[in-house]
Amino acid sequence: MAHERLRFPVLLNNTNHPEETVYQPIFSDQGYGTHFGLFANFKGKPVDDGYHLDGMEIKIQGYTGDVTLGITKVLGHREKALPDQFKLTGFSTGRLIKLYVLLQAFNHNSIANYPEKIANGDAKGDDGEENQEAAASPSLNLLLRHGDVVEVTVLYEPVANKISQIKEDSDTRNTYSLFADPKFLFRDGEEIGWLTGAKEKMEIIELAKKKGLDAAIALADSRELHSFVAESFTEEDLEDRLFGAIGGGRPCKMKLSDVYILR
Which domain of life is it from (predicted)? Predict the structure, then answer.
């Protein structure tokens, strides 16, 4: 069986739903030697032409491995056309919802909301900025249809500076770093240096976290910070190749879910 057919089912229905919060699997992989899964609680209600999604609560669960991974932010989502090889005859709508989730090693935050709640109970928009529209309506306001596909892309931000000293000068990092983050740094004797393209990768991730996906993509394009992507690519697929390279984008990850709306 081809990996294109290995998918999770997302079951959406608010009738006969258990009172307890239910999290459904949407992603599975390993990072920093830890096998983990991402699960989502989909909050919304069925409507005539699908399921009106108000928001999601994403939870990470580690299974084996020595490093605790946490969610630092759900960066946003994009709607794309589903590639033909992933379509199921008589079922798929042809719509792909790509969800971007940011993780960090040595982080104990196991749950993140999307849209993100802020201190006053309002919400931040998809660009990460607080605005009147988002504050007035915290709903994600996304219509899911029976046969849609959800794809999760996981990105990693560097291990906290107090552990890795990644944001310090080389002398300080060489002397005081407790962990050479293998996604960004290498250790060679007394030296803890940057992997090729890692500084650019960190800059893009930090901007995506602070300002949103669009700002990060614009930065990468305008300043050509996508040099660590081996293949050339067009403007149309800049986002996919950029974040695929940052996230390590292996095609056979367990990252796809088919949407089933039960009546």
Answer: Bacteria
Q: Which residues contact 194 (CB under 8 A, 6 or more apart)?
A: 184, 185, 186
Task: Find all residues with CB under 8 Å of 128, minimum gap 6, and list them.
Answer: 76, 209, 210, 211, 212, 215
Contact present, 85 and 92 (Cβ < 8 Å):
no
Residues sharing a CB contact under 8 Å with residue 155, sequence separation 6 or more, in sequence order: 75, 100, 101, 102, 103, 205, 208, 243, 246, 247
Query: Is the pTM above the cut of 0.70?
Result: yes
Q: CA–CA distance from 261 to each of 44, 74, 75, 203 (Å)?
A: 12, 24, 25, 39
* Cα angle 127-45-144, degrees, rounded to a multiple of 5: 55
